[in-house]
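Hey team,

Filing this mostly as a record. A colleague (T.K.) asked me to run one chain through the structure pipeline before their review meeting, and I want the input and output archived in the tracker in case anyone asks later how it was produced. No errors, nothing strange. Just documentation.

Input sequence:
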Amino acid sequence: MPDDHILETQGLTKEFHGFVAVDRVDLKVRRGTIHALIGPNGAGKTTVFNLLSKFTKPTAGRIIFEGEDITGARPADVARKGIARSFQISATFPHLSALENVRVALQRSLGTSFHFWRSERSLETLDGEAEGLLEKVGLADQRDEPAGELPYGGKRALEIATTVALDPKLMLLDEPTQGMGRDDVGRVTSLIRKVAADRTVLMVEHNLSVVADLCDRITVLQRGAVLAEGSYAEMAEHPDVREAYMGGNHD
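Output structure:
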């Protein structure tokens, strides 16, 4: 049977001038699951994401995606292989409409990615698919609003829509509910569950209620190293995890 782990790291390490930010991390993400990477501030979670998305080069170790070693791949190559990432800060184009933002992400299917000088008419074939994605994330009625004028939860929903537009096999979501009120958290949580129905999600998330609600498996980092791994129930009862992380703020 084929390996059911879509992503694996082996001894992944990153040092910055003698400081070990990520320390020999072994991570396995099972295909078709929602996997959380949690830990206290400074645990190395975002650095792991930077390594996986190739924005940072590892000091040591390997990254394997769908059985292929991508440790030395460039960010654009990793994206083409099917890994897409969202960020803690919304990364949409604020002066473009919600529909135009999704169309930019969809351009890759036309082979015209980043060809912003192309005629508007050449992109009209993407309108139907873009509108469908906006409907999926609850933004159909705001399709013509500039992204910069959407409420915070709407901006995050739009960013997820643009990430899905890339048709990734693996979505890396970095703090998708950060700074949100309860209503927006519920909306984005439901959205993540919906888009994860046919793809794999690896997420960094501080809100443990979201983690408990969404995630099939959790990896806990402390000081750059893996402290423990298992289900939410197992991690909630793990004495080292409770001391290092869950004994703090659970909001």
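Quick notes for T.K.: The mean pLDDT is 87. The first helix runs from residue 45 to 52.
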